[in-house]
């Protein structure tokens, strides 16, 4: 019997609402087709359902004239961390993004915990 091909080992991450929102800030706006497909797959894993948004009281922050800003708010006491499984290729891309941001001195304080979590993620062997 032939050996079965070994699947690409992945990693499990537990992420907060804030971290899920920050993922979109660290993704590159452009890339090759494969990278963009991988990013889309990750976005699907971290996306919010309508029910979850209602449960946590997610809302856009409005300015003085009642127009939405780029800020959001939610009830942190109602949020539940999300456990996601990332494939080896997905975590490799995230590590590449974090390394690039770090090399360019672009890791901000607000991203530091997420960047460390990604950087220290170990693949399941």
Keywords:
single chain; alpha+beta; two-stranded antiparallel ribbon; two-stranded antiparallel sheet; 4 strands; globular
Could you explain the architecture of this structure?
The protein is α+β, with helices and mostly antiparallel strands. It has a domain at 11-48 and 81-119. It is 46% helix and 16% strand. It has helices at residues 17-26, 33-46, 50-56, 88-103, 109-119, and strands at residues 11-15, 59-62, 68-73, 82-86. The strands form two sheets. The chain has a two-stranded antiparallel ribbon. Strands 2-3 form a two-stranded antiparallel ribbon. A hairpin with a 5-residue loop joins β2 and β3 (68-73). α1 (17-26) packs across α5 (109-119).
Question: What proportion of the residues is helical, as a percent range?
Answer: 40-55%
Question: How would the global form be characterised?
Answer: globular
Mean pLDDT across residues? 89
**Unreliable runs:** none
Relative strand content:
15-25%
């Amino acid at each position: 019997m032939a050996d079965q091909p070994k699947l690409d080992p992945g990693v499990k991450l537990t992420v907060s609402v804030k971290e899920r929102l920050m993922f979109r800030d660290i993704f590159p706006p452009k890339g090759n087709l494969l990278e963009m497909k991988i990013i889309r797959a990750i976005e699907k894993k971290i996306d919010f359902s309508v029910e979850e948004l209602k449960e946590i009281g997610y809302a856009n922050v409005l300015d003085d004239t009642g127009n939405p800003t780029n800020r959001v708010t939610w009830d942190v006491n109602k949020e539940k961390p999300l456990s996601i499984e990332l494939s080896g290729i997905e975590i490799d891309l995230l590590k590449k993004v974090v390394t690039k941001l770090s090399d360019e001195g672009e890791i901000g304080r607000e991203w530091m915990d997420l960047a460390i979590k990604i950087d220290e993620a170990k693949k399941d062997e």
